[in-house]
Amino acid sequence: MASYDQVIIGGGLSGLAAGIRLARFGYKVLILEKHAIAGGLNSYYYRQGRLLETGLHAMTNYAPPVSKSAPLNRLFRQLKLSRKKFLTHQQLRSTIYFPDGHALSFSNDLELLRGEVARLFPGSINRFNSLVELIDRYDPFVNRPWRSAKDRLHELLDNERLLNMLLWPLMMYGNCNEHDMDFDQFVIMFQAVFLEGFFRPAGNIKDFLDLLLGHYRALGGEIRFRAPVKHFAIVDKQVNTVVLESGEEIAAGQVISTVGYPATLQFMASESGPAETAGYRGRMSFIEIINILPSEYRKKIRSDETIIFYNLDEPFDYCCPDEAVNVNCGVICFPDNFHDLAPGAEFQLRVTHPANYQVWKSYAPEEYATMKKLWADRSAGKVGEIIGNYREKVLYQDVFTPTTIEKFTGKANGAIYGSPIKLKEGTTPLANLFVAGTDQGYLGIVGAMLSGVTMVNKHIFKEN
Ligand SMILES: Cc1cc2nc3c(=O)[nH]c(=O)nc-3n(C[C@H](O)[C@H](O)[C@H](O)COP(=O)(O)OP(=O)(O)OC[C@H]3O[C@@H](n4cnc5c(N)ncnc54)[C@H](O)[C@@H]3O)c2cc1C
Question: What is the C-alpha separation between 10 and 456, in angstroms, rounded?
Fold first, then answer.
């Protein structure tokens, strides 16, 4: 039987980061990934000769290489990767749209957002400045119980419209809860999006994944693709062996699972009956529509921003819609609109809306295909009201739904941001099993990688 010091389940970004950190210090480490390629929620596929990214709109937490203490640069140091050689493109400018013409633009320079708040909400600028000061000093990584961000922001800002406009992008890019958000998570996301900002790595997500995989392997780490884990053999409340769908058993000293807590509970439950996963199944899922348009059409639509976060619902509520999709709110992303990116013959327009997993799951296969077309069309109609009509010019379109996300990542209910209950400590009922990634509590690409590294430092290296 093969035997490893450390087995990591999942070759997404948290698994790769954890693997690199362990391999760097000489551990015999194996990553088990059920798919044929790495990346998980943030991966890629090919259609009609084009490489399409599954997730990447933008990475958060931008920092120039000189900012030594910035999370992005700390992450690179921990992984022993050169930050200077990692070329990045910063966002141009993004905007938050709400009803009645309310619009707030922001970039990687906080002064733009500050000026916008002063222009749109002059009576609230002093309170906004105090909020920024508070967030600058605040440590969100202390293990506090869940606290309502909305209540706290009501106290701090006393302006319903402003607080909802600030919450909207942070919720869309990192909130597993409906209706409200944990205040600590709000602070993490505020720092990541408004204080640090959006960027893209040079090239595409495949280049980034290749960089991580090449580095991991060069350090002696092993990865097996098409190796889905089925369950654990447990002895004395410890994982003894990891059992694959194929029946193969792999002995493991310690195990880090990045597949989400509901799936991890299933691995543990195989010998003691079905697992109680209900409380850990998130409800926030999304539909993503990728449109490829001819470059010359760029000037015909409003396409000078990087990301537009729009909400036309009154009152505003971040929640799972009753219908298949809520096109009244969403994210419009132009992944080609970052500084110093040369325009190509085509450009991409990606649109994301909240979507209902149960509704999508209920469709029969033919109905599913029809509904994808129908909702992509409704989306184009609504998004066209904001940026101008593009529907007739689409060269290629692909749509993925909550069930696509569940199928390709194993995330219960297609919930990208995972369980509404986060396991901040990363511990489980089994002494040598730890959780990293989305359900541990850090979200997004940089967040997932930080989670992998942090859990290794804390539980394997026993650093405080
Ligand atoms: C549409 C979309 C857009 C996004 N946009 C952005 C963005 O612009 N910026 C950003 O920062 N973040 C974005 N994200 C979020 C980001 O992708 C995730 O937060 C991050 O990648 C999560 O990484 P992870 O390692 O925790 O989990 P995952 O990526 O889910 O990795 C888990 C891995 O485990 C594997 N696995 C599952 N079950 C098993 C099993 N039984 N055995 C073996 N392996 C298994 C899966 O195949 C997967 O590879 C987006 C996500 C989506 C879906």
Answer: 15
264 in ligand 1 pocket by Cβ < 6 Å? no
Q: Kindly write down the DSSP assignment for every residue of 60-108, as one continuous string.
A: S----TT-TTSHHHHHHHHTT--STTS-EEEB--EEEEETTTEEEEE-S
Question: Is residue 57 within 6 Å of ligand 1 at its C-beta?
Answer: yes
Q: Say how many Å lie between the CA of residue 223 and the centre of ligand 1.
A: 17
Does the beta carbon of 24 lie inside 6 Å of ligand 1?
A: no
**Successive 10-residue mean pLDDT values, the chain, 464 residues:** 97 98 98 96 90 91 95 97 95 97 97 98 98 96 91 97 98 95 95 97 95 98 98 95 98 96 88 70 94 91 93 97 98 96 91 98 97 98 96 94 90 88 92 95 90 97 84
The DSSP bridge partners found for residue 348 are 292
Residue 220 CA from chain centroid, whole number? 28
Residue 414 CB–ligand 1 contact under 6 Å: no
Q: Are strands 329-333 and 346-355 parallel, antiparallel or unpaired?
A: antiparallel
Q: Would the CB of 416 count as within 6 Å of ligand 1?
A: yes
Tell how far the Cα of 13 is from the centroid of ligand 1, in angstroms: 7
What does the block give as tokens for 393?
């010019």
Atom of ligand 1 nearest to the CA of 333: 8
pTM: 0.94
- Per the listing, tokens 């539909």 go with 287
Q: Is 281 in the pocket of ligand 1 (CB under 6 A)?
A: no
Tokens representing 134?
Answer: 């508070």
Taking alpha carbons only, the member of 457, 422, 281, 420 closest to residue 358 is 281
Distance 180 CA to ligand 1 centre (A): 23
Q: Which of 259, 453, 454 has the most ligand 1 atoms within 8 A of CB, as the residue to mutate? A: 259
Distance (angstroms) between ligand 1 centre and the Cα of 372 equals 22
* Angstrom distances, CA of residue 388 to CA of 290, 327, 394: 17, 15, 13
Show the domains of the chain with their CATH numbers. 2-62+204-280+417-460 (3.50.50.60), 92-196 (no CATH), 283-409 (no CATH)
In the structure encoding, which two tokens stand for residue 242, read together?
């990891």
Please tell me the distance between residue 41's alpha carbon and the centre of ligand 1 in angstroms.
Answer: 3
For residue 137 the two structure tokens come to 């000093």
> Would the CB of 289 count as within 6 Å of ligand 1?
no
Q: Give the strand pairing for 29-32 and 222-224.
A: parallel
State both tokens at 306.
């990087």
Q: In the structure encoding, which two tokens stand for residue 92, read together?
A: 């141009």
